[in-house]
Amino acid sequence: MAKLSSIGTAGLAVTVAGVLANGLAYIVPVVGARRLTAADFSVLATLLAMTAIVGVASTGLQIAVAVHRARNGPSPAGRSTVLTMAAAAGALLLVMPVAVVVLRLPVPATLLAAVSTVGVVAAGRWLGEMQGDERFLPLAAGLAVVAGGRYGGVVLGLAAGAGLTTSLLIGAATAILALPVLQLLARRPGTPVHGESIAVHAVFTAGAATLATLVVSYADLLLSRRFLPPDASGAYAVGTVLTKGALWAPQVVTVLALPRLAQGDRRTLRLGLLLVGACGAFLVTAAALAGGLAFRLAGGPDYAGLGRYAPVFAATGACYGLVFMLINAQVAAGARWPSAPLWVVTALLVAVVWLAVPHTVAGIAWSAFGAAVAALTVTGALVAVRLRTSVTERQSESATLSVE
Question: Which of 72, 205, 236, 332 is the Cys-Cys partner for 224 at CB 3.0 to 4.6 Å?
Fold first, then answer.
């Protein structure tokens, strides 16, 4: 009972930290829209989008460190952290000058956003160490610290009327200052560090898997922007709020399960899928029973009439919630290209929407649901094959030992 209680406390703490992080990320554009000129707000929104993509490296580093640590115990992570930071900085150095010219971004604001992003990438190391050690209460505190560093400084600057550049300067400072706090949270005096350091390709694999999950789950929103008239694309954007809610609501389960998945615990995988699936089923049922209310809460009373589409949006997110769990299981098991099916599904979704389906809210929404079902089917099949193969290998090893 005590163990269940501690798991529940850890889950609640991680959930609260996730809500705080997402809330701060939401507040930045809300405050920016009210405090900045239209031109400066456009710059802020563009920089947030660009740095969010590069920031996927932080999640990749966190997952790779957590998996390696859960499997091998405390191991050196400095080299992989430096190389990941260098790769992120290199990507920014390549992209930012082009963006400054093509997107007409101011140089000081762009540089400050890059500095903040590199700090966020570095944070992935200590978050991964705490997650791999299953120290979920310090992890929750660390997630809150990272969110405060990444977004809190910018929010404070904007709220005080400091302007775009000064707000980003404050944000860069808080992002860097968050790192020593994370290091203190992750520190375990007297715990020896031993073994091999984390392979760089493990960080790349985890980062690519996270990026693929984001791309495939956001592809329909981008397609709606391209193919629907403004009013309809706005309505579709409101629907995707339900998709993201169903996708991210159960992600605390994946965070808690990852260390056990790295140790090959099949029971954790089954239980995790059951919990994520149950959460998705609940949200889809709620959307079916109160679709108008769901759209009203997501976008306001003007969208309440679109409630009939709520179940398909929620079902798409529920499927991707299961996909995210399965992809993390593949990463934890050391699969080489776990993100490959998601890239293929994304390409097929783009082709189908571009060439085949009606360019309506329903047409794109059902296409996105079909893509989610396809992604779930393929990733589920790959996990099942891996589990069956591992059972066969173990049986073969046991038979060989018994013969000897």
Answer: 236
CA-based radius of gyration for the chain: 22
Residues 52-84: tens digit of each pLDDT: 878 888 988 999 999 988 888 888 888 888 999
On the CB side of 95, how many CA atoms lie within 13 Å of its CA? Answer: 16
d(CA 377, CA 342) in angstroms, rounded, equals 11
- Share the mean pLDDT of the chain: 86
pTM: 0.82
